[in-house]
Amino acid sequence: MKIKDETLGMWLGVLGVAFFAVTLPMTRLATGTQDAPQLSPWFLTLGRAALAGLLSVIFLLATRSPLPQRHQWKPLGMAMLGNAIGFPLLLAYALRIVSASHAAVVTALLPLVTAACAAWVLHQRARLGFWLCALAGSGLVIVFSMLRAGEQQFGFAWGDLLLVGAVFAASLGYIYGAQITPALGAERVICWVCVMALPVTMPGALWLWPQQPIATSSWLGFVYVGVFSMWVGFFAWYRGLAMGGALRVSQAQLLQPFLSILVAVPLLGEPIDLVTLGFAVGVVATVVAGKKLSQARPAAASSQQLAHPKETT
Question: Which of 28, 176, 208, 310 has the fewest CB atoms nearer than 10 Å to its CB?
């Protein structure tokens, strides 16, 4: 039975990663480009969180979930700022400038940055090798971004900085959300994050409701990021981590940048670029090596705990 649970957990983890991977091309589909804008980044950010918030209210009422305790509201608030506001807003602005494939390479650093934020916020100690891997992965992203800046009209100084900001926002949100996951339960964390944001996201989304005609495809992108990226994906991801083991199932996240690149081909008409794929492989390789070195040395391991079961948006 345990083996069946682990297998099901792995498949649920892969399903969650697949939901998250489609977030990049769907966000670009929803916002459009600078030349052909659709939904505004602010409306997309507030609207998707409001949609997930309404679904969360139904879930919490149906499961008779108790209110979080007083000391849990602060980490929930930080998770809200990082995962419900910061990450989607910066990502939406960035994807009006850069392609989804380009964004997939930069956001592939997310697991490594999350581990680095855990070391900073939770005062965890990591080996020197981990920090070297983090520097190597960051260096690859910088080289890739500067290379693309020479070929296209966007550059590292704007689109890529937005993506880097999105990665850091998501990472901090994951860390604070992970602090209370053992007490609240994984699914309830994302639900309370979305519900906590409703007093801001619902009025904001209604106020910013688009007045100009919006393409049907952009509305479909909006519904996807609100239902699957912000809500359903976390249910599959968290349940997979719980059933299959966080260490094992979290490796499925390494598939995310490649799935994003592949989905962008039929959805957005972006070509498969060998240079982009090559840099994605390089960044993922640094993530693999960094994850192996993210734990402290055995002598200090007893006081360490990996605190990022949520490694993606």
Answer: 208
Distance CA 173, CA 278 (A): 29
Higher pLDDT, 109 or 242: 109
Cα 265 from chain centre:
21
259 neighbors 17 (Cβ within 8 angstroms) = yes
Q: How far apart are CA 73 and CA 113, in angstroms?
A: 24
Are 193 and 76 in contact by the 8 Å Cβ rule? The answer is yes
Identity of the amino acid at 26:
M
267 and 217 Cβ atoms separated by less than 8 Å: no
8 A C-beta contact, residue 130 and residue 293: yes
* Tokens (6 digits) for 310: 């949520």
d(CA 96, CA 180): 34
Sequence-distant (6+) residues with CB within 8 A of 118 are: 124, 175, 306, 307, 308
Beta carbons within 8 Å of 252's beta carbon, 6+ residues apart: 10, 13, 14, 16, 17, 240
Residue 89 amino acid letter: L
**Sign (positive/negative) of CA torsion 222, 241, 84, 291?**
negative
Predicted pLDDT at 23:
95
> Quick one: which H or E segment has residue 59?
helix 41-62
Question: Residue 61: which of 72, 53, 69, 71 has the closest Cα?
Answer: 53
Q: To which residue do tokens 């059933």 refer?
A: 243
Q: Which residue has the tokens 């995310």?
A: 256
Q: Distance (Å, rounded) from C-alpha 194 to C-alpha 271?
A: 35
pTM confidence score: 0.81
Distance from C-alpha of 10 to C-alpha of 7, rounded to nearest angstrom: 5
